[in-house]
Amino acid sequence: MFIAGHYRLLVYTVIFGLLSAISAHFVPPKLWKFPLLSRVNEDELLVRGVSPGKLKGASITTPKNTSAYAFFAIPIAEPTTGKNRFRAPIPRKPWSGILDASKPGVSCYWNTSDTSNVPSDFEMDEDCIYVNVYTNKHCLQKGGCAVVYYIHGGALKYGTTLQYDPMHLIDNFNNASRNVIFVNINFRQALFAVLNLNYKLDLPIDLNAGFHDIVHGLRWVKKEIHNFGGDPDRITVMGHSAGAIFAQMLTLSPQSKYLFNRAIVMSSVDTDCGFVPDRNQHASRLASTILNCSVVGIKSRIWNNPTYVIGVIECLRNKSALEVSMAQKALDGSGALLGYLAQDFGDNALFPGGFKKLYAETPPMTVLSGTLSKEYLHSRDIVYHPNRTKQLWAINETRLEEYAEKSLNVYGAPDAKRSVVERVMKEYHSVPRAIYLYDDVANFVPMRNFAAHVTSQGGHSYLYEFTYTNIGNAYVRGLQQPQFTVAESPHHGQDLAYLVGQHVGNFTSKDHKIQYLYSQVFVNFINHGTPENKNQSWHKFNPKKDNFFVIDFPDPDLAMPGENDGYHRDAVRFWNDEIPRLTGPPKPPKTESDIGLKLQLQRLSSSNANDLPIFMIAIPPVPSNRTNEESIFGWHNDDDYDDEADGLYEPPKQDTGHDGINWVITTWIGIGIIVLLAISHAVTCMKLRSKRNDYQYI
């Protein structure tokens, strides 16, 4: 037996040595690695250490063959339940073991019909403040990669990182020719983010809790991103729509403006957006009444009693997250303003001194900003067909007057004289101008003025306009929502299908090319501080020329048209030059009632929840045998299912001994297995040698 054993060992050694020599002859040494060693190297890249502990991400290869490492739902704050609800986030406590960061997380709670996204599509939880980090092998091994910190839109009313397709993000930012680390932040929404019951009182809540989450996430990136191969001194904040406003506000807040180097502002609206101390106060008090935490009207003097208000806060903290979320749904259509930011005060204030003071103190910074050429088309219902049998359009004078007054209110002249209203009506008394009336004052002129402000502060600004119209089915608007037509495109948010994978539809071969070309503009800026490349010259914004870059993809070569002067020239001239001569400089709002929707607020001021339709205040009961989430949305966790109990899993049979083993047969089986493994190893390595990643090296 002893001799037979040595004989078998000798045979194994000789055969394996011969096969190894053959494999080495055909395969370069740099590719000749044992599978076990490759696995160890892979684990070294997947397991990262951050201050609270270790975590393990996922290795992902996209359909375009881009390889990346994704670390999902990295918790950066303690759960915001109990006393932590409505408070600024608390850093996450250390955890033991290795945290699983290989799967997407949850959404923070929100519930509104103001978006085409459906709340029931997302699992929701209050332990929801986290970041996702998308990086690649080059960054993890070499380090020093540029970082982009993305903030989603939704005005602190709705939204989640789950809206974005990881495959798009990896293809656009992590491929080997770009090497950008993409980070997006999941933060609180709605009442959890903006509760404001009385800003004059010293209460156990923090105003703008949702924005505190965003600042907290940025601090985390500054501190921890080197663990994922990022350079903490090359951070770009990037936001779209309300996320763009928050990116702008990050440049103002003393708590955040020195945590990053550059900013990308996409399709923003007027920056301050009703930045007043009592913002969200009406909605917060009304929601408290809906939730049976208050029994007084929203204008009652009792709201000045600290004891009463603190009692309301404790009541709200004892409500389930689902109940609070349903109160938001009940506010839909009430006219109460919910969302955006309030002017705050105190030691933990994000915006001490007010918007005007902070805006004047904006530090020099490099910014890329721009709009879509059609954005919202809010005022398009000014025009109509007087006779549908003829292709003629006419102006609805009543609607034109309404939008003229609304636009003056947004501008900052709510009490403008009748002659000024008539001047606005005359300026926009044509079909091509009328449909842009509200967008001009709310989107286009503020965006131009922001670019000019950055320049005046000693920074550098690049301005663009996205004009591509044939987006078609590349963008899916939402459930039971009609698609945007060519005449309506590019509409607000449609470009995100190409850039960050939001509302992605069916891509044609041209759409895939546009995805690459459009994202390259932003990657260039993130990496180099300028969007230009060897084929596209971008000049810094000059307020005297109002120069901007036109982003379009005409057939056949998809070459972008390049630069023009006079960004929305007529609107800029009218609202920046003529209207100030007629009304004086804009008057910023002082209270929530000055922002707009005055009739609705007046109605709310003299009412309470009992005056609202019954369907608005009804909150469905939660069955005792189900969780809050399951009762409405029917969510479940696949991990809760027991395959063994369902008969899908059979325990392996145990060996009972070694009797009856034929060692001759076993020896030849062993030799055969070694031969097959060696051949497989050689073939695999030869394939790796010839493999090329076309997309990564376009």
From TrEMBL:
Residues 50-555 form the Carboxylesterase type B domain. The keyword Transmembrane applies. Its EC number is 3.1.1.-. Gene3D superfamilies: alpha/beta hydrolase. GO terms for molecular function: carboxylic ester hydrolase activity. The chain crosses the membrane at residues 661-683. InterPro entries: AB_hydrolase_fold, CarbesteraseB, Carboxylesterase_B_AS, Type-B_Carboxylest/Lipase. Keywords: Hydrolase, Membrane, Serine esterase, Transmembrane, Transmembrane helix. The keyword Transmembrane helix applies. Signal peptide: none annotated. Belongs to the type-B carboxylesterase/lipase family. This is Carboxylic ester hydrolase. It comes from Panagrellus redivivus (Microworm). The lineage of its organism: Eukaryota, Metazoa, Ecdysozoa, Nematoda, Chromadorea.
